[in-house]
TrEMBL record:
Transmembrane intervals: 149-170
Protein name per Swiss-Prot or TrEMBL: DUF1523 family protein
Keywords linked to the UniProt accession: Membrane, Transmembrane, Transmembrane helix
Xref: InterPro entries: Phage_phiNM3_A0EWY4 (IPR011088)
Organism the protein comes from: Sedimentitalea xiamensis
Keyword Membrane attributed: yes
Length: 211
């Protein structure tokens, strides 16, 4: 049971960590090399990682055009972002300006010889094997690519979430100590007393048989 308990705990925190890592905003510094639009089928194995449908569009289509933003990060790595509305669905970015964002990204395109550095705010993962892309949320120009970006939102959010979990755990521990542990102790005492009574009766029965 101890192994099952720890396996459940590790699975819970692992899943929670994966959800937070996928959902919370991240920021990359780089330059935009190109923008384009591509037809994407949304009924594949990776459909979970695409927005469900365009805001105001049909909810029954299985394929549609999706904006993409190509970039080269300041460390030289190539990164491709999708640019989809999230609307009122998960994750709650309430993004409805993908067309405007695509226009901004197109206007910020640059070359290696004359780079325009930008901060691309996004969420999600990039995986080449199953063709999933992080979703760009915003783009803004910066003068210095070595600008230090402090994730204040993530720090505050994770601090509040940790405080919430701590408060729930403390209250659960107090509830368990006040309500559950005494009941379990009473059950244990009752079982022990029952065992003693059975042992005593068994001893009497054996002594009676021995006469």
């Amino acid at each position: 049971m101890v192994y099952v308990k720890w396996a459940f705990i590790l699975l819970f925190w692992g899943l929670l960590g994966a959800v937070l890592h996928y959902t919370l905003p991240q920021r990359d510094i780089g330059r935009i090399t190109d923008t384009y639009e591509k037809r994407v089928d949304l009924d594949g194995e990776n459909s979970l990682f695409w927005a469900q449908h365009d805001i105001g569009g049909s909810t029954t289509v299985t394929g549609r055009d999706v904006f993409f933003i190509q970039s080269r990060l300041k460390n030289g790595k190539v990164m491709v972002y999708r640019n989809e509305d999230t609307g009122w669905s998960w994750p709650p970015y309430f993004k409805v300006n993908s067309s405007n964002l695509q226009a901004e990204a197109s206007d910020l395109k640059s070359t290696a010889e004359n780079p325009k550095w930008v901060v691309i705010r996004h969420y999600g993962w990039r995986n080449e094997f199953i063709s999933i892309f992080p979703n760009a949320v915003s783009v803004r120009p910066i003068a210095d690519p070595d600008t230090r970006l402090i994730p204040w939102f993530n720090i505050v959010f994770l601090t509040v979430l940790a405080a919430l979990f701590w408060a729930i755990w403390v209250r659960w521990r107090r509830f368990r100590q006040a309500r559950i542990d005494p009941v379990l102790e009473d059950i244990g005492d009752s079982m022990e007393a029952t065992g003693d009574a059975i042992a005593e009766k068994s001893g009497r029965f054996r002594r009676w048989l021995g006469r």
